[in-house]
């Protein structure tokens, strides 16, 4: 059986193509996004950042943006954005940083925004990657009625505290006045003790005087008895 031989030039070309395929297949992309963003409805543009790192990649690449809402998903920029509403705008600020600009942010814009990067000249599966997605939460602003309710609640709380303080002061004043009317003035216990001590002193002095009087009468009675006996 005869062997089929290839020219040396053909073999060299085949090796070059194989090397290019191997090099191209090593292209790898890693996409990083913020997990959560909380904002309020505003007419100013809101941007969602997207960072990515490309390893062993060359050539042209595109940036894609998608969003997943509560019931459906939308292709926002693939890679060009829908220019009918001018609501979304994709920008490449650096070779490894992109962002999505959202205009006239509304409550309905809450969702998961996903950034994707694809090197179109590469056939490697890792040359097309998406991030984990940024969950955008558009919070509802506080209405004037809600703010007024908070202010009224605080004022009512302060009014109740002031009313309780006034009632407590009036109660103390009334209780003090009642004690004055009943004769229970400060130092009354001291006066009672003093009066009791003076009373005891008077009783003791009275008993002492009576005792001295009895002693003074005893010699007279003895003298009288002696005179009577002599008589």
Automatic annotation (TrEMBL):
Q: From what organism does this protein derive?
A: Pleurodeles waltl
List each copy of the Ig-like domain by range.
Answer: 46-131
User: Which residue intervals make up region (Disordered)?
Assistant: 210-231
Q: Which UniProt keywords apply?
A: Membrane, Signal, Transmembrane, Transmembrane helix
* InterPro entries per the UniProt record, alphabetical: Ig-like_dom (IPR007110), Ig-like_dom_sf (IPR036179), Ig-like_fold (IPR013783), Ig_sub (IPR003599), Ig_V-set (IPR013106), IGSF6 (IPR039089)
TM ranges: 148-171
Ranges of Polar residues compositional bias?
221-231
Q: Does the keyword Transmembrane helix apply?
A: yes
What are the boundaries of the signal sequence?
1-24
Protein name (database record): Ig-like domain-containing protein
Highest taxon of source: Eukaryota
């Amino acid at each position: 059986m005869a062997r089929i031989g290839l020219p040396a030039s053909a073999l060299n070309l085949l090796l070059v193509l194989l090397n290019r395929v191997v090099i191209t297949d090593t292209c790898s992309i890693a996409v990083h996004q913020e997990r959560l963003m909380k904002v309020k409805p505003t007419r100013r543009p809101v941007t969602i950042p997207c960072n990515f790192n490309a390893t062993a990649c060359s050539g042209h690449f595109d940036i894609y943006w998608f969003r997943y809402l509560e019931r459906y998903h939308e292709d926002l920029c693939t890679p060009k954005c829908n220019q009918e509403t001018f609501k979304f705008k994709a920008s490449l600020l650096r070779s490894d940083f992109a962002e999505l600009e959202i205009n006239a942010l509304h409550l309905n814009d809450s969702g998961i925004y996903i950034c994707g990067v694809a090197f179109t000249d590469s056939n490697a599966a890792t040359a097309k990657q998406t991030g984990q997605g940024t969950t955008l939460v558009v919070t509802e602003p506080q209405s004037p009625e809600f703010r007024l309710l908070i202010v009224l609640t605080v004022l009512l709380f302060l009014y109740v505290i002031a009313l309780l303080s006034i009632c407590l002061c009036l109660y103390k004043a009334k209780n003090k006045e009642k004690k004055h009317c009943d004769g229970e003035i400060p130092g009354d216990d001291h006066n009672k003790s003093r009066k009791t001590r003076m009373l005891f002193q008077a009783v003791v002095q009275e008993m002492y005087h009576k005792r001295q009087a009895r002693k003074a009468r005893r010699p007279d009675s003895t003298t009288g008895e002696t005179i009577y006996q002599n008589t």
